[in-house]
Design goal:
This protein is of the alpha+beta class. It has a single domain, classed as 60s Ribosomal Protein L30, Chain: A. It is about 20% helix and about 30% strand. It has a six-stranded mixed beta sheet, covered by helices on one side. Strand 4, helix 2 and strand 5 form a beta-alpha-beta unit. About 30% of the residues are buried. Belongs to the RutC family. InterPro entries: RidA, RutC-like_sf, YjgF/YER057c/UK114. GO terms for molecular function: deaminase activity. It comes from Chryseobacterium daecheongense.
């Protein structure tokens, strides 16, 4: 059984998709970009963008009754791989070193709304 997860504490979907779907104890979170859900505006600069994306992901996890400790897989899209070190430090600051998820990071030529970063996650209920 699939349950759609949605929260006002993360940006609303800007297309035909859900913020997240929970199916058989697995939460599939759509890629999050650095939109501040309170204002609907993009934040700018890789540091602020990464923090906003992680806050958006955290809000969706919380709505599903989970946390970053439940995340088993992350996919990170960067417009510029030169931003990797900054992004990586901020990303790691939200996670527990004892439960880092699997991950890949790829550079892409363009992201929605021309942002610098997008992250999607898969989490599993304990």
């Amino acid at each position: 059984m699939k349950k759609i997860i949605s929260t006002v504490n993360a940006p609303a979907a800007i297309g035909p998709y859900s913020q997240a779907n929970l199916a058989n104890g697995v939460l599939y979170i759509s890629g999050q970009i650095p939109v501040d859900p309170a204002t609907g505006k993009l934040v700018e600069g890789i540091e602020k963008e990464t923090h906003q994306v992680m806050k958006n992901l955290e809000a969706i996890l919380t709505e599903a009754g989970m946390s970053f400790k439940n995340v088993v897989k992350a996919t990170i899209f960067l417009k510029n791989m030169d931003d990797f070190a900054v992004m990586n430090d901020i990303y790691a600051s939200y996670l527990d070193a004892e439960s880092y998820p699997a991950r890949e990071t790829v550079q892409v030529s363009c992201l929605p709304k021309n942002v610098d970063i997008e992250i999607s996650m898969i989490a599993h209920q304990d």
